[in-house]
Amino acid sequence: MASLATNTERCSSPLGMEDKSILDSAITASSEWDINHGANNARIYHMAGGSRKGAWSARRSDKEPWIQINLGKIVEVTKVGSQGRQEAAQWVTKYKVSYSTDGHHFTSQNQEYFGNKDQNTLVINDLIQSIKAQYVRILPQEWFQVASMRVELYGCVSSDCELTVVFFLFFFGEEPVDGGYSAWGPYGECSKQCGGGEQTRRRTCTNPPPAHGGKNCAGLGPELSTRECNTQNCPIDGGFSNWLEWSDCSATCGGGSRARSRKCDNPVPQYQGKNCVGLSLETEDCNEEECPTNGGYSAWEPYGECTKTCGGGKQYRERTCTNPPPSAGGKDCDGLGPSKTSRECNNQDCPVNGGYTTWSKWSECSAKCGGGTRSRSRECTNPTPQYGGKDCSDLGPKTQEEDCNKDGCAVNGGYGPWGSWGECSITCGKERGIRTRVKSCDNPAPENGGKDCSGLGPDSETKPCVPLLKKCPVDGGWGEFGEWSKCPVTCGGGEQIRKRYCNNPKPEGDGKKCEGDQQETRECNTNKCEPEWRPVGCFMNTVRALGQILERVGSKSSISARYAACTSAADNEGVTLFGMDDRRCWTGEKAESTFSKYGTSDQCLDARKVPLSGGEWNKKGCYINKGPILALPDSFDDTVENYQGKENILEACTKKAEDSGYKVFGVDDKNCWADKSGKNKYDVYGESSECRKGSGSEIDGDMFVYRFEQRKSNSGTDDTYNGRMKQ
């Protein structure tokens, strides 16, 4: 066992984590995030490098992590120092300390020490009481992000006389036997292939083992021994240095070459290492571009045609920069003179042809109506013809004449005789109508702007008349359709009707009645009636009448959530019967035949019907779920005990059963039970009277069973068969 002690002289020297006098093999942990977050990273001031991270880090799934240091012998420890992870924001904010002299039986101080608030600040805590031990564990209690630490232990190696023992051991019976070491075991493998490694061997305090209060082997020397091994130098393969700069190109244009070299001295090969592989000299082409050529003009082309035939024109000639053309950056011909020249030509005066002035205004017409004539003229002075130019004879006549006032003289219109009287404006009823007659303005008709007959009186007149029929016929018209009738069923297909009436308007006299149908029909609620879950009852599940876990619903906070999870799991898995307790949804290969083989129970939670799409979960009762083969062997959730309240357990199991496709499940206080085969075996061991409020008890081996059953449609048909869901 370990000892608690007070030191008469305070000791606080580092015990070997930073200076590595404590070997990597002496540092162990409850878990490691991976090989790069290993326990050997837990040394104070350790720095990340290569693939190694900057601290020991426990796995996130490790809920009670610890880092353990084997000091190699009994040592007095007075302080603990800690840092967070050097290269990431992870640290332990609170921790506890436990200790042991044999590495098997640990004593805890039950004191919580404050740890770190950042990555690299060293926080040192004085232990509430120094400890004398060979093994010390640091147990993180709270941490930021991930439990990551670097630690150092402080204290001193003390003899028994330097300690004031604060407890006494009394033995009654046989004499104490002090422990003795066994022979050293063989050395292990060397830690390195070359360059100097370590081998470790071990001996145990078993020759004899301490007994009856006798001393252990702490005072007889270390348990571990190390020695150097493979001290020969490791082979060093040669490596090339960087390439030197390229040499100058052998030509400035038209193509040359250049070279560069490197040496096998980075490093030089030693101790039978390999020589460098590859070229030490390489060449490449350079300045491959063509050398420049300046351009030169070709000979002048002949002059072209004159731009005018008289009055002074110009002729042009050109030359091109093609003798030779410039290339590869050579100069063009801009500095060699112009590429185009001109000269005057055809400077004699040009003939001027005569042109007419604009026409004069037309003369007055020779008659006011019935047809006359008028004329106009122009002169050949725009311009006057010169230098042998043509006169205006080819440009048309000098004078023009045209007809005018061709319209006939005006004729005023006159009325013809009255026409016959028209039909009466009303054909039926008691009201009087009118008859009309008209006359036309065609005797004569107005012409050539003559006046119409509007000044001679109206062209129509009326007189009253009596209709031949005393009563008018009215054809009937349909009104709007009324509302659809209520559908007689909620699923499976029904029929709705709606009506209209011949009242818009009603038929009267000899009027026609309305044509077409008075009512129309349509289908309604044609959706298929879905199956539903129904609770079966509470059944014993001690030895798992339902042994297969359909869903774990322990994390659900309410019974409705667990119930929904169980029913969802049952639906997804195709299970037709499952059980639910407060942690899991249970089923089994033959759930419908085994769920009740251990009997019913009255310990289950009160089950509520939870309507689902097309169905609901109904109680089957309390059944026994224990025996060599569980009635519902599959626990589809074993975490329901984490939920508060049995209603929440049922809710979680129901939801999980639905998610997993189970149609039957059983519930106890820790599991939801079901059977993947979906068979009706939940009652194979009989009913139980131990269920309470719709849930069984895992310890008593009972469960309350629920089964998903299809709803009945409103038409009176039953879509369930022997309590099982129709396929």
From TrEMBL:
Gene3D superfamilies from the UniProt entry: Galactose-binding domain-like, Thrombospondin type-1 (TSP1) repeat
Keyword tRNA processing: no
Localization (cell): Membrane
Keyword set, alphabetical order: Disulfide bond, Membrane, Repeat, Transmembrane, Transmembrane helix
GO cellular component, one term: membrane
Entry membrane topology: Single-pass membrane protein
InterPro entries, per the entry: Compl_asym_regulator (IPR052065), FA58C (IPR000421), Galactose-bd-like_sf (IPR008979), TSP1_rpt (IPR000884), TSP1_rpt_sf (IPR036383)
Pfam families attached to this UniProt entry: F5_F8_type_C, TSP_1
Entry keyword annotation includes Repressor: no
The F5/8 type C domain, residue ranges: 11-156
Transmembrane stretches, start-end: none
PANTHER family: PROPERDIN (PTHR22906), SEMA DOMAIN-CONTAINING PROTEIN (PTHR22906:SF21)
Listed name of the protein: F5/8 type C domain-containing protein
